[in-house]
């Protein structure tokens, strides 16, 4: 039950964070937005250390640095994909690619998956497609570049999460603190190197960027602790239902219309969680 709650919490936080981050990325250049997201996210992790502990062992640091490289690349291609194409479709491609890779790898590593679990996983992926499909975002059409960025993001994001999931589980948030520190150094270095080439957009929305960073960091912490009590195959599927949360937030905040098939997708997501809970 703990794994379910933490996985759902992770999905909720990722959904909110991705909504804020994507909106900020559409208004300003991605390299104007990422530093604020990562600074706020990194500080959030270090604030948690007195409560969750952190044992910076060599393995924790090693996994953290490795996932940090994946995460830095993932941040860039993820928000770039969401900024240049329909937010829902990009989110769906990223979620399905990353979920499938993590699910297959965990099963190949020996995790037993019941028939009910397989049905729940497939239903969850179909639900992501339904929830994310929109006919309204004509201002950001689907392009080959967006699809390539989304697929690449899904692959990179799966590597990021697998390194966090398979890292030592008795080190508190040390691994993730190392991850965020590595990401921050890499992104700030990249932003400095390309500062003169950046085509400045509107002034970055700092509050939105900070909110995205905090939500993203807390979502990752919830994901890590969910893996301590459940399998990656299980946690990956539930936590990647975040596009449904993004849709709900977009509906209430910027009044995006929820279409009939998206309601079906949300119902499917709830059913998928129930099946995975019983598996």
Automatic annotation (TrEMBL):
Keywords: Membrane, Transmembrane, Transmembrane helix. Pfam families: EamA (PF00892). Residues 148-277 form the EamA domain. The chain crosses the membrane at residues 6-24, 36-54, 60-79, 86-105, 111-130, 150-167, 173-194, 206-226, 232-254. One of its GO terms (cellular component) is membrane. This is Unannotated protein. It comes from freshwater metagenome. The lineage of its organism: unclassified sequences, metagenomes, ecological metagenomes.
């Amino acid at each position: 039950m703990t794994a379910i709650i933490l996985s759902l919490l992770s999905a909720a936080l990722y959904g909110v964070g991705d909504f804020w981050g994507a909106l900020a990325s559409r208004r300003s250049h991605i390299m104007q937005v990422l530093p604020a997201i990562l600074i706020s996210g990194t500080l959030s992790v270090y604030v948690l250390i007195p409560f969750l502990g952190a044992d910076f062992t060599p393995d924790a640091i090693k996994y953290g640095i490795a996932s940090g490289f994946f995460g830095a690349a993932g941040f860039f291609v993820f928000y770039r994909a969401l900024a240049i194409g329909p937010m829902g479709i990009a989110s769906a491609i990223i979620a399905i690619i990353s979920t499938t890779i993590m699910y297959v790898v965990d099963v190949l590593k020996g995790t037993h998956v019941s028939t009910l679990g397989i049905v729940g996983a497939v239903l969850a992926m179909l639900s992501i497609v339904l929830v994310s499909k929109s006919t309204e975002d004509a201002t950001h059409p689907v392009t080959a570049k967006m699809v390539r960025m989304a697929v690449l993001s899904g692959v990179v994001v799966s590597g990021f999460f697998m390194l966090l999931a398979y890292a030592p589980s008795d080190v508190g948030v040390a691994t993730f603190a190392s991850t965020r520190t590595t990401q921050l150094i890499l992104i700030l270095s990249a932003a400095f190197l390309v500062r003169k080439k950046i085509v400045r957009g509107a002034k970055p929305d700092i509050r939105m960027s900070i909110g995205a960073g905090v939500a993203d960091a807390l979502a990752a912490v919830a994901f890590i602790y969910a893996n301590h009590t459940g399998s990656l195959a299980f946690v990956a599927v539930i936590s990647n239902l975040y596009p449904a949360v993004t849709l709900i937030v977009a509906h209430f905040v910027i009044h995006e219309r929820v279409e009939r098939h998206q309601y079906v997708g949300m119902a499917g997501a709830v059913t998928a969680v129930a099946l995975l809970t019983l598996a």
